[in-house]
Design brief:
By secondary structure, the chain is α+β, with helices and mostly antiparallel strands. It has five helices and seven strands; from the N terminus they run ββαββαααβββα. It is about 35% helix and about 35% strand.
């Protein structure tokens, strides 16, 4: 058990007393430990994690986002994720994505994005709504893995297969 002890001196009829209050904070400390563990897991995650409000304004990015995009957190927070847009997805694609998550469903797919330096990269993304205790949607969370190397390898395999088929 974790207990906070408050001791408060007071005087009554020229006699000094000590008022002692004990407060059990075991549950609060356990909650704090769980919160720290969750925070560290997100910060140290090997995938990018982005949290936006319902309008799509970025409120949080983990360090992997910084590593992947080249943007500092302060350059992304307050922005819309379209700052990373390569321009290859159509407005209709984004409308489908947004309508899916607004309906409470999870959207999954591949996105071709642009780093701060202009280089393009591929991400496998999963975007889902965050629902509070009252069942109200409050945010969106995107969990994204950089799959650029995999996409390059797939392209080489397709190219080699086409070359093989053209020879034979």
């Amino acid at each position: 058990r974790v207990v906070l002890i408050y001791v408060e001196p007071y005087t009554l009829n020229e006699v000094m007393y000590m008022l002692t209050t004990l407060i059990d904070v075991t549950d609060q400390k356990q909650y704090e430990h769980e919160l720290v563990k969750l925070s560290r897991a997100v910060e140290q995650s090997p995938v990018s994690i982005v949290i936006t409000d319902l309008e799509g304004t970025i409120e949080y990015v983990n360090p992997k986002v910084v590593e992947t995009t080249g943007y500092l957190p302060m350059e992304l927070i307050g922005q819309n994720p379209r700052v990373l847009n390569s321009g290859e997805k159509t407005q209709e694609d984004y409308k489908i994505m947004y309508n899916t998550i607004l309906s409470g469903e999870v959207w999954q797919g591949e996105i071709h994005n642009k780093r701060k330096n202009g280089d393009l990269y591929w991400e496998l993304a999963s975007i889902s709504p965050v629902i509070n205790d009252e069942g109200v949607m409050t945010h969106f969370v995107a969990v994204k893995e950089d799959i650029t190397s995999r996409k390059k390898l797939e392209a080489v395999l397709v190219e080699n297969e086409n070359l093989y088929r053209s020879i034979f």
